[in-house]
Amino acid sequence: MLSLWLVGASYADVSDNSLSYFFDTPIAGNHPTKMLIAILVLLWAYFLTCLITAAIEKCYGWIKFTVIYLVICVALVLTSNIFKLLFLFV
């Protein structure tokens, strides 16, 4: 939640809007694409953080590591593409 707040605060600073505008308008349905993009970027950042730390810490064997993170990466790519197609015509 803190990371979503940080993205919202930086967006509000750049576009001279209030922070409540960033969080309230997606709920009201006015700008769902902006909130969706913020959530997808945060998911990708979290995935990359987990990938890098798991690789550095060597938590899993290479086969298990590859299978786990490949499945998650494929799911994120499919999710990102589905939402990109969903909002393509908006």
Features:
4 helices; 90 residues; single chain; 0% strand; mainly alpha
Helical residues, percent: over 70%
Mean of the pLDDT scores?
Answer: 76
Count of separate DSSP helical elements: 4
Strand content: under 5%
Report the span from N to C terminus.
27 Å
Number of strands: 0
Taken from the alpha-carbon principal axes, the silhouette is elongated
Residue windows where pLDDT falls under 50 for at least 5 positions: none
Output the structural class.
mainly alpha
Rg, nearest Å: 16 Å
**SSE order, one letter for each helix or strand:** HHHH
* Largest sheet data: none
Task: Summarize the topology.
Elements (H helix, E strand, L loop, with lengths): L1 H14 L3 H10 L3 H26 L4 H25 L4
Quick structural overview:
The chain is an all-alpha fold and 90 residues long.
Task: Please provide a written account of the structure.
With 90 residues, this protein is mostly helical. Helices cover 83% and strands 0% of the residues. The chain is built from 4 helices and no strands. Helix 2 packs across helix 3 and helix 3 (32-57) packs antiparallel against helix 4 (62-86). It is elongated and about 45 Å long. The two termini are 27 Å apart. The mean pLDDT is 76.
